[in-house]
Amino acid sequence: MPNEVATRPCVLVVDDEPRSVETIARVLDDEFEVLPAQGAAQALRAMETRPVQVVLADQRMPETTGIELLTQLREHWPEAVRIIISGFTEADDIIAGINDAGIYQYITKPWHPDALLLTVRNAARLHALQRDNAHLAQELRLSADDLARRGDACRQELRRRFRFDEIVRAPDSPLHAAVAQVAQMAPHDVSVLITGESGTGKDLFARALHYNSHRADRPFVVENCGAIPNELLESELFGHVRGAYTGAVADRTGLFEEADGGTLFLDEIGEISPAFQVKLLRVLQSGEFRQVGSNRMRHTDVRIVAATNRDLEQEVRAGRFRADLYYRIAEMSLHLPPLRERPGDLQALADHLLARLARALGKPGPGRLSAESLECLRDYAWPGNVRELNNVLKRMLVLSADAQLGPELLPPHVLRGGTDEADFMMPPSEDPGVATLRERVENLEAAILRETLLRHRWNKSRAAEELGLSRVGLRSKLERYGLERKLDS
């Protein structure tokens, strides 16, 4: 029983009338640990002795009013949830001071025991929720706290990590042009729109822009505009005040304010609604905004870096994206080529990703791609770009029994070079350049043969058995499609 009592939420009950404290204690005793205090002085001493989750105070006391006491407690113990009890005659005083004291609930006399118990229960749950959110926020801020504590050393590490020469690519990579462009843009306070398919590294280039600019010592804040509804996006970006809408139990700082002096990266900006585009344009033009539910204007100084996998110029022509907002976010534009246009980067990217994945997975070594595996990777079109490559390499590492990563560890669709049966079910076309049915079937057959042989490490007996062919039949097909010579070379 002692352990069970110790884990119960603690409620501080403050009233100059001992009988009132005893009455409230009887209502709460079964679920809460009640800490009695007869007046403000005892309440302050009690708060210093142990953690208190909920404070219940009577408004009319000789030393000080309940509102004055709770206002004082808010300054020193803001995490405690505060409840005031009063008679109807004191309602005007309560309402006038409710914001200063941060009152969670106002209970009038005479109160009903069930209503009082329910109110305190909800207050304790609110305290637990706020505590959990605070712990999560602390974990998310660890890198920022570390940066503040270690100062220049951390700043230099971030700048080193996002140097332009740290962007992985081959010596003759098409990515060189994009890197050269971003290096020219970084020192200047211009808005940059980064375009490219999903998974091409838009987030990486946005960070490189920030950490190579004069804003590098200020925050880099990210919001994925396509991940949350536009109704919530306004609160995320601008913040809100307590009571702005149902569930807004406390003031919240928006990302424009958090990023002040730094960079705000708006990913998937093409997903925002036309109505929200107007609100976003207003703050980008003036640097001023209002929190949801507030009339007070706030100012922010941020650099905007936006990204999208859509063709925003086409969206503007179609009337789905405002032209004035487009020109505001695209003072400079940067396009990242897809991975299929950079086959020469695959070796460098694979080595880099395998080393990082091996550390994350606890593997003794990064693993080495066989020549056949690398050839398969180069033959594949990578619709998911670097993100998909990362997933494929992770699969290979997880399934591998040794350091050599052979093609049998690759997913079937990568082994087939992306060829899928669905690719051959297209409607007929009048274009004479389109392959005939026979040619399509032969292409599919060749892809399946290649995949099967690679998966069985070119053991033709096993491949023939799986495909329902004789060894002679398999060899004939390999010769027909030129695979025998390719695999034996």
From TrEMBL:
- Domain Sigma-54 factor interaction, by residue range, is 168-398
**UniProt entry keywords in alphabetical sequence:** ATP-binding, DNA-binding, Nucleotide-binding, Phosphoprotein, Transcription, Transcription regulation
Instruction: Kindly indicate whether the keyword Transcription belongs to this entry.
Output: yes
Entry keyword Nucleotide-binding:
yes
Which residue ranges does the record assign to the Response regulatory domain?
Answer: 10-124
Q: Give the superkingdom in one word.
A: Bacteria
Which InterPro entries does this entry report, sorted A to Z?
AAA+_ATPase, AAA_lid_NorR, CheY-like_superfamily, Homeodomain-like_sf, HTH_Fis, P-loop_NTPase, Sig_transdc_resp-reg_receiver, Sigma_54_int
This chain's protein is named Sigma-54-dependent Fis family transcriptional regulator
4-aspartylphosphate-modified residues are where?
Answer: D58
Pfam families, per the entry: AAA_lid_14, HTH_8, Response_reg, Sigma54_activat
**Which terms under GO biological process does the entry name?**
phosphorelay signal transduction system; regulation of DNA-templated transcription
Annotated Gene Ontology MF terms?
ATP binding; sequence-specific DNA binding
SMART domains (UniProt xref) = AAA (SM00382), REC (SM00448)
